[in-house]
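Supplementary Methods, section 5.1.

A reviewer requested that the exact input to the structure prediction be made available. We therefore reproduce it here, unchanged from the version used in the analyses.
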Amino acid sequence: MRVTRQGTSGWGRIALRLALAAVAMTAPAVVVACGGSTASPASSVTVTATVQPPSPSPSAATSASSSASPVGAPTVTLSVYFLRPIGGAQPSHGPFVATAHRLVAATKAPAGAAVKALLAGPTAREKAIGMTTAIPAGTTLRSLAISAGVATVDLSGAFAQTTPATRAAAQLCYTLTQFPTVSRGVLIKVNGAAFAVNGSGAARKRADYESVTPPIFVESPAPFDVVTSPLKVMGTADVFEATFQSRLFDSAARRLAGGTVTATSGSGTRGTFSFSLPLTGSAAAGRLVCFDASAENGASLHTVSIPLTFGH
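The structure derived from this sequence is encoded token-by-token as follows.
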């Protein structure tokens, strides 16, 4: 089974999360040792196929163990969240959270599978475009429980080496809140003991990590996705007057499509956006570029560049 997505608005509720939740076992949430979890029931959803995950690549050795599955076995696409700098003039506190996709064997414990894929780190080609992780090497998942909308993730002692913890905690929060059963936030433990983030041990949501969320956050597509026409783009933004620019280029840097995008809010309040771009021509690859044009001089600010494979 391949799960793909269609863009919709809304910060915490996207079609991918619903589709992933449909994979979960229809039973109460429980604690599962050594990295597993189960999610509470969700209704089945049919999702229009527009974006496919990247095909396994020899260069993606880092994620091979977390994404490989037997030929012909059902699979599901999960999102994991690493860190990546943005181009143009940008705040000094980057890098920022960025989406990556993993194709894994269909499982009744997708949240645990997503965390394990996150802990495996970015692939070689993701590293080549600047993706990194703040989660220390050697961190393993001890257990994961989802109950009453809160995900409690217990990690090995290596995680305590992250300083400061904000970015690593944000990666975990973004990864787990893709699931609709995690509606009230994420609690982190290390070797069974509460782990404080910015002095607080309370459950935290994505909004609590605004400082490491880019001004233009493209949730979908992710780098190296195989996309078809129309390319559906979705995410969140906090930019001046809620507007920014989108451009779709082929591998020869020829512009294929683009225009002005307006989010639901901006200028200090994060809003959502969703739009589509046609794929024209016969190029096999290209990139999506989103940026905020400076009101002062038109310079490109907060530029996000996402390499893609065109499936036409």
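The chain is about 10% helix and 35% strand. These observations are discussed further in the main text.
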